[in-house]
């Protein structure tokens, strides 16, 4: 299993996963391509054979803050540790870029993801509950000293 930066040829598979896992995000191939080319946004993937098994999308914001925008693992590859490896990579890269705080949004019903994020030290932000396109979500964050 190798983690690599995603490329333009990965866009159709990434977009398919985004639409399935995050239907509330208004994403199309052009917006995804813009994200792929943006200097402060990073998309990494794990492939199994010819299939894109998982990806993570994260970005550097302002004031030493980063955000994990999306982590998705195809159903058939869940419980393989891919999500954990990709979250670890995102945290490492964002810390290397000088981020002192990392944010993310998670669906309230996604207990598996919540457990994963908590294992890295992410905590729910008080008052950070809301809805996106009818889906209950909340904000989580992790802070680093310095």
Give the helix/strand layout.
Elements (H helix, E strand, L loop, with lengths): L2 E3 L5 H11 L7 H9 L3 E8 L2 E10 L4 E9 L8 H15 L4 E7 L3 H9 L3 E10 L2 E9 L3
Parallel strand pairs: 4-5
Antiparallel strand pairs: 1-2, 2-3, 3-4, 5-7, 6-7
Q: Please give the largest β-sheet.
A: 7 strands, mixed
Record field, number of beta strands: 7
Reading off the top of the CATH hierarchy, the class is best stated as Alpha Beta
Main β-sheet, spatial strand arrangement: 1-2-3-4-5-7-6
Oligomeric status: single chain
Gyration radius from CA atoms, angstroms = 15 Å
**Elements, N to C (H/E):** EHHEEEHEHEE
Helix content: 25-40%
CATH superfamily membership: Gcn5-related N-acetyltransferase (GNAT)
Estimate the global geometry from the Cα principal axes.
Answer: globular
CATH architectural type: 3-Layer(aba) Sandwich
Outline of this structure?
The chain has a single domain (3-143), classed as Gcn5-related N-acetyltransferase (GNAT) (Aminopeptidase). 30% of the residues lie in helices and 38% in strands. The chain is built from 4 helices and 7 strands, in the order βααβββαβαββ.
